[in-house]
Amino acid sequence: MTFNLWHGGDGVKLPRDTTIKYQLEAIRKAEADVVGFEEQTTNQSDHQSRARVLADSLGWKCHVIDESRAVISRYDMEPVGRTKSSQAVLLALPWGSKAVFGVMHLMYTPYEPYDIADRKLLNAKAAEASARETRLHQVQSVLDEIAAYADYPTVLVGDFNEPSCLDWTEEAIRQRGDTLLPFAVNWPATALLIEKGFKDAYREVYPDVTQRPGYTWTSVEGLWRDPEIHDRIDLIYIRGNKLTAENAWIVGEPATLSDMEVNPWPSDHRAVVAELAL
What we know:
Blueprint: E1 2-4, H1 16-30, E2 34-38, H2 50-58, E3 61-64, E4 70-73, E5 76-79, E6 88-92, E7 98-105, H3 112-117, H4 124-145, E8 154-159, H5 170-176, H6 188-195, E9 199-200, H7 201-205, E10 234-239, E11 244-252, E12 260-261, E13 271-277
Parallel strand pairs: 1-2, 7-8, 11-12
Antiparallel strand pairs: 2-4, 3-4, 5-6, 6-7, 8-10, 9-10, 11-13
Helix pairs in contact: 4-6
Pfam families: Exo_endo_phos
Protein name: Endonuclease
Organism: Parapedobacter defluvii
């Protein structure tokens, strides 16, 4: 599961214990075994790692990467490499295998889909150049960190703050029919992962972009832009010959886009959960 907590949950403006209750409900409803968090540190109520609070509530393990990112899991895990703040962990699966699980939270500004809609970016070349300069080094940093574990089944999750290149093809944009989005974009963060052998778990299950857009941004209509530009920016990528995506769901507020509903929903992002077979 990938789950952006929106400033640890403080963004939703509910009492601390209420927010924790619904964060836990989302994880339990998703039947998640491993969760990658973004924005996991609260910045208003107590300035604590919400990931640690949720892990303790579930009786799970916790690995904090930084103020934004953390991994919690029912499985034992250890950081890859030599640093405690590693961006990925090695999960000890119950049947004796191990798998790599990493979390990314890519830079949120500039957000190119808004800039395209606002005519600040006038063509795909400009949009791709902006995104490449803004985020590609972050993706490469994670890939470098897990390079020694290339033979392990690998899952990379995160808030990419950039759409999937699979969702902005010429055909997908034509079918979308949004006059504010006049051209296709080969978004570089996801294109790089695909080039490196990763597969988009949600699109493996639901390849038809028009039928299943899977938008995760945003669950709070009109808060950031009006009209809003919706996109699927919370993603799960998998790599490994024996690792396949069996199912995938969007978890969020009561809405047609949510496959699993939690009310009230405690984030401005919808979460994503994938069922993987190894």
